[in-house]
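Hey, can you fold this one?
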Amino acid sequence: MKFKIEASIHTVPEIVPDPETQREIEASVLRAVRHLESQPHHLLGEGASAKVYFPEKGLPNTCYKVLRDNHYPVVHAYNDTGKEKIPPIYKAHFDNKTSTDLPWSLSIEEEVKITNKVALLGQEADMPVDVPLCYHYFKLAGEVDRQDEYYISDRVEVVLMDRMKGKDLDQIVFGKLPLPSNFDPDAFIDKLKTFLDFIHSHGIYHRDIALRNIMVDDQGNPKLIDFGRATDTTMGEDPYRAESMVGDSKIVRTFTNDDHMLEEVRKSLREYHKFTQSPEFAKK
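Sure. Predicted structure:
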């Protein structure tokens, strides 16, 4: 499928590429999207709502986070003259889904804003945890297929961002991979706890702390990724509760508590670290 870039937005005002680099970035994004399924060896990771790829060439130390259709098709209804009768909406019932199946992740634009805010706050305060900086956001549109009275637009959103060196804890634990030498699970988690306390003091909550969203590099340093469920709260708000209206119905969603989930990660990491010290692991 062919795609075209509908929007190209610089997300770090201080870092704007020159025209030649901009053209290279856009060409690389189009190549990446065009070959998503045919080049699985470029896949770095996959979450509930997105896949992360590294560029096929150039742009060192970067990667692409790709969201396709924001989970669900964008549906446009047309009348006989081809004019749109209703604005584009997400139709939860279009593929027999109910309102409770609607996505609860942030829009990618909101995620980029929160991720960059956290990354820059952490850098300014010299925090012991790295967060990837997002440099560029793209909206792409593909060919349109006719399906009964609806036209389904194949839309893709792409973020060019820092490529974090290391592996996520989910890969390490379930892949039974070695931890960095002299790794201390409690010291590692304590750094993350310090960082979470810091961003909480600025009203930001991650709300998806899990092994898959925490990385460790070869030196044992922690990195926090995937702010797709994060929130930037105001005073008095419950950061772990969200309300949304779907038609006349109010849907309430609760999110996992950062501190509680970090302690669950601590338990898992302690157990795995102990396993890596065992004769059984040494035989691998």
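The CA atoms of residues 25 and 59 lie 8 Å apart. Let me know if you want another pass with a different chain boundary.
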